[in-house]
Amino acid sequence: MKRAGLSLAVACVALSAGMAAMLWPNARDALAVLAAKDDPAELSSLGVNAALRNNPGLIHEQIEAALAAGDADLAGSFAELAHDNNVVLGDELSKRVSDAVAEDNSTAQFAKRFARGFVTGSVDDVASFSGTVAGDLFVWGDIRDVVREGKHLATGEETDHLILGLATVGLAVTAATYVSVGGVAPLRAGLTLVKDTRKVGRLSEGLVQHAGRSAREIVDAPVLQKAVASGSVLRPGETVSALKAAFRAEKAGALVRLAKDVGRVGEKAGIKAAQDTLKLAESPREVARAARIAEKKGGQTRAILKTLGRGALLGVSGLWTLAGWIFSVAMAVLAFVSSVKATTERLTYAWLRRKKARRARRLAATQQAALVAVPVAG
Known about the structure:
Layout: H1 2-35, H2 40-54, H3 58-68, H4 72-84, H5 91-104, H6 107-120, H7 126-137, H8 140-154, H9 161-174, H10 184-199, H11 205-218, H12 221-230, H13 236-244, H14 253-269, H15 271-280, H16 284-297, H17 301-308, H18 311-314, H19 319-373
Helix pairs in contact: 1-19, 2-16, 3-4, 4-5, 4-17, 6-7, 7-8, 7-10, 8-9, 8-12, 9-10, 9-11, 10-14, 14-15, 14-16
């Protein structure tokens, strides 16, 4: 029975040690996630590392897919991610990526897309976005959008209040009435990006709702209706002055913060990364997290968003699950310590018992020898 108790204690030591070893990787990852809960860039690194452990060929597959789709920018982003994670691409694949990026950035292609962006306001890449921003900086684009949506509002037609609000803020920024917010360049670019992403229907529904509510408060509808009645893109100076009167600067804070964060993503990670962010993010808070990722990860941002999806913008989720892993390994360690203690006690008790038994046997033998040595009285 005593031997069975010792065997059980030893088995518990082995079982608890095995459980702790099995649970430790998940607990270690949970501790790392909780430690980085306020750092979106570090959290994204942990997420990418986990994805690469599950699929070591992930980056190669994504680069091949991006090249096949003609998305040189995304292929280049994954190449940067590979370099940062010590993933070897090979000379042939690296050359294909660099050639595709060089072709995409060629002078002829850049000029063509710049002109399209300037005239139509359609944003597909850096070149067309540069043309769009140029159009807005010369107030052409914003006046066009305010006059169009303002006339819809005045005539009772369906009005895109988000486009109207973004264009109105854009006019104010361009006219330097909102310079006090600081960082005007990212703000101007961000406003254009959000506006044009909305136009092509790539803005997430969550952002449409959040930004739309803010945009409705920015414009004084009666004043705007009066301004657009006489406004024209052919008289930009007069039109801007009239439209500025409809702008409620004190109501623009939320929309300005959103646009600045989008501009920061575009500035640090590229226009397509900003567009991907606007498609994935469902709230301004998530856009702000994307901006923090872009500031640290730069060109890798698109690859990170492609790999992790919206999860890259959500922060720490499943806190109870993470805590559960940590608690489980803590219990396994406690069980191991308890089992070692119990085993040590049983071994010590068994050793003492055997020692006492040996001592008793020696004492009995000594007593027996003494009895034999004593002469029997005649």
